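User: Could you go from structure to sequence for me? I need the amino acid at each position, not a summary. Structure tokens:
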């Protein structure tokens, strides 16, 4: 399984064909590789993952292609965030961030796509009604009217590299 080194003990389980490459990654210190075919890392629900307020998500990633919607990380109920979902849109690679309660949601869309075939530093922050996207250290879109009608956690697992319904298969490395 995967180990959480943050101190929060949110260890995960690799599902599908996800593999660990101990010498890969943008810095050569390791990376999880996803083949875009039902791979994901599943992390059990925990109190410290029930994030319904301000949030920051940061990652290094390498996308092989955009034949799929590439799920980065999220807690969803079917295809609706409960409370959040962060992915790269199919065909375009534009980052989307969503928050909701498993029934309804709001989204904030970045400006520029994350290019395939090279490493990128991707981040999103939510502070109140403002969501900011970042790409390789530069601001990549701001939404100052982010206002989901409801935000709630449905006690589901957190997934890296896909979503609960397996509809956002990441194809590349995280």
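Assistant: Here is the amino acid at each position, in order:
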């Amino acid at each position: 399984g995967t180990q959480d080194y943050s101190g929060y003990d949110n260890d995960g389980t690799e599902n599908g064909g996800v593999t660990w490459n101990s010498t890969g990654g943008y810095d050569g210190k390791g990376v999880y590789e996803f083949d875009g075919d039902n791979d994901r890392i599943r992390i059990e629900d925990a109190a410290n993952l029930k994030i319904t307020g301000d949030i920051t998500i940061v990652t290094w990633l390498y996308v092989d292609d955009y034949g799929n919607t590439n799920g980065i990380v999220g807690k969803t109920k079917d295809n609706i965030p409960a409370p959040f979902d962060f992915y790269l849109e199919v065909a375009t690679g534009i980052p989307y961030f969503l928050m909701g309660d498993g029934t309804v949601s709001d989204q904030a869309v970045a400006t520029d796509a994350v290019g395939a075939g090279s490493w990128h530093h991707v981040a999103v922050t939510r502070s109140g009604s403002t969501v900011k996207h970042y790409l390789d250290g530069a601001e990549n879109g701001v939404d100052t009217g982010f206002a989901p009608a409801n935000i709630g956690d449905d006690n589901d697992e957190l997934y890296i590299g896909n979503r609960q319904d397996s509809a956002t298969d990441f194809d590349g490395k995280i």
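One structural detail worth keeping in mind: The mean pLDDT is 96.
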